[in-house]
Each structure stands twice: as C-alpha cells, then as structure tokens.
Amino acid sequence: LLFFLYLCQKYSFMKKYIEYSWMIAIIAFNLWAMLKLDLTHENLSYFSVLHQHHILFLWGTLTASWFLYQTYKLFQLSSFSSKAAYSFLFITTTMLILSVLLPYQPERYYVLSELHILLSFVGTLAYAMLMLYYHQQHLRFFYHQIYQKGFVFYLTLMIFDLLQYITYGCVNTYMECSFSIGMSIYLFLLNTA
Fold it and tell me: How far is CA 141 from CA 27, 67, 109, 135, 146, in A?
C-alpha cells in the first residue's frame, strides 16, 4: 500500500495508470483464484492449507489496501468529515490485512486459524456496514444522483453475497471473489463519477 501511495503521490501524472494497474491486478488475481479453487466449497484461505500462504497474503493485501485507498479517496472527494468513519475504515482494512497474515491451517495452528476467520469475517462485515453508513448518511443527502445509481449496485452485491452465504452455509471462493471484484470496481467508479 505504501508503495502504491508513494507512486501516486510522487508521480501524480501516472496516478490513473497506477490505479488502473492496481485494479486490473485485483481482478486478474481473483479470476485466476476462481480457476484454481472450487467456487462453492472452498475459499481463498485454502491456499494456506496448500502451503501457498503467500498467494492468500498477496490477494488480501492487494484487496484491503485498494479498499482503504479508494474509500479514503472517496471520503475526501465527497467532503465526508466523520473522524470516526476514517478511524473505522483504517481499523477494518487493518483487520483484513492482519487476517491474511495469519495462517489458516486448523490442524497445525488451531488458535491462529480461528483468529484468521474472526478477523476476516468481522473486518469484511464491518467494512460493508461502514459503506452502508456512508451511503445512507452522506451520499443520499449530498450526492443524490450518485446515490441512486451507486446504492442499487452496492445493495445488489451485498444481497448476492449474502445469498451465497445462505445457500452454501459458508464463505466460498465465489463469494470472496465477487465481493473483491465488485467492490473494487464500484469504488473506482464512485471516485470517477
């Protein structure tokens, strides 16, 4: 994240290219993961079970740092001034990054695996709730046209992922990748609206 922020700051003329590259990397990585794993019965933590933890770490760090960068940028562009929301954003994305630092190998590291699950689940849910709060408390009143278009997409993505969870009874690759890709594109589009 610091590397991308440094590049965006130092080479502002390349900012769009860096952002496009970052988003394309997230999308490509998710599509690759969807080809490697069972979509409905495994999730990206399975890479840790396969002793390929670096893949899980790369995916989680790319995605969480993108969420942090794009959401922070969105808050700045829309003059969203809630200090609590900024703190909450930092905490939720940090939880997501911490979750992928921890190995998911329940047979070897039971406590760390449970902590991995807790951090990733709570971090993702808290981030989704933060975005819902932002939509309802800020976009709806100050940027009504963007709210009307954006909220439908956001709500559709949340309902789709919730239905995935209800249908399969677990977090799966399809759900993780659709949230990662959907939110990445959504945040990018909101920032360019």
Answer: 32, 23, 47, 9, 10
Angle between helices 53-77 and 173-192 (to 10 degrees): 30
For the whole model, what pTM was predicted? 0.88
- Distance from chain centroid for Cα 39: 18
CB neighbour list of residue 127: distance below 8 Å, 6 or more residues apart? 67, 89, 92, 93, 96
Q: Give the CA-trace dihedral at 23, 29, 31, 35, to 10 degrees.
A: 180
| List of residues 6+ apart from 148 with CB closer than 8 A | none
Give pLDDT tens digits for 99-138. Answer: 988 888 888 889 998 998 899 999 999 999 999 988 888 7
Coil, strand, or helix at residue 165? helix
